[in-house]
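INFO batch 0412 | record 1 of 1 | parsing
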Amino acid sequence: MLEQFILQRLRQIVGNDNVRDDQSSLLAYSYDSTAQFQALPDAVLSPTNKEQVAEVVKVCNEHQIPIVPRGSGTNLCAGTTPLEGGIVLLFTHMNQILEIDEKNLTMTVQPGVFTKDVFDAAAEVGLFYPPDPGSMHISQIGGNISENSGGLRGLKYGVTNDYVLGLEVVLPNGEMIQTGGKLAKDVAGYNLTELFTGAEGTLGVITEAILKLIPQPETTKTMLALFHDLEAAAQTVSTIIANRIIPVTLEFLDQPTVKVVEDFAKIGLPTEAKAVLLIEQDGAPEVVERDIDTISQLCEENGAFDVQIAGSKAEAEALMTARRSALSALSRLMPTTILEDATVPRSEIANMVQAINDIAEKYEITICTFGHAGDGNLHPTCLTDARNKEEIARVEKAFAEIFEAAVALGGTITGEHGVGAMKLPYLHLKVGEAGIDVMRSIKQAVDPNKIMNPGKIFTTPKTEVHLNE
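INFO prediction complete | emitting tokens
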């Protein structure tokens, strides 16, 4: 609990109306979309500008008070849960698009801008911001940058990191730095922009970002390929990429996911299919037409029993919206939904899907699988009940094996959700002990008092968790 004189200093910085310490407010910010981790903060602050952020951080550093920067709380790895109490820092008031520079194809934003608003603002001037996490309607750009969020268009266009040109960051000592800029080239020293992108709020507070925009594609086409065999659908993903076609979107949904999404969205999804590929391509009309024709042929050659091409923009948007609703639809079925994102090389998709199914059967749990198959990013999603301790123990063992299987196939424990608290025990599987030591050294150098989002990504050496113990 914060001492009253510290709380008073914070009130003086951000104003009484921007400090909440009542029980209901603290409870609302004690968890994120992960739901398995919960801890009460001591206060919730909503600064109105970067100067206030810097002053708050200085006070917290002086008194070694934890700070958890938080957007909309859509995080899926317990990355925005205040596990050690302290301050939750919101950006409700810092939600402005500061500039759209059409000459340099950039947009400068504050961290509290919703991702969909970034996309829409770019579209209004004929430009395109490609990153599109499934939560883009409610997630904030500061959170996207902190997690290096991916999305449905990641296969062709990349992830958030590929569109962050520069950052303004408040360091743990309260000093402010600018990294990068409106530049096509910049190799002046370490790439600090990339260091803070994906750092999950453990190294500083992002107060401004310069984003890269690109020209809008001329046209888009969307299609569904239906399969009676799940493995054939997974193999088709590898075949499409092997033929050197890179769609915008190449999504995979297994039958349980399709059924739940159709029940939720009611747009006529083919629930008789064991697996569905949702494929989108954009670009010049002649290129899109050629690619869609080739992809259709490849799907049929690999066992698709039906290939459907959206006949209108509305139909295509309905399909994409349905896919984005997968998590929401699945969450209706059981009290607890655990969504993961094991990622493998594209060529290993079929093997990874089989491994997930085998592990689910071994531990007698329900796992629905969907995800960005084109870039190897699968989302095995377990429907369970956290109150069933025996089942949860099996779920934890199953996911540990899923992560091990992903790494064994040349993959990683997380492709876009981050490490946070949930993946912390598994980080060594991917980066090794030496890699963790390097990260810990960076953390120590930048944040010696360990006030920035403590308890995330890695633990102290004494409490490091290993799966083989």
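INFO post-check: Confidence is low (pLDDT under 50) at residues 462-469.
INFO record closed
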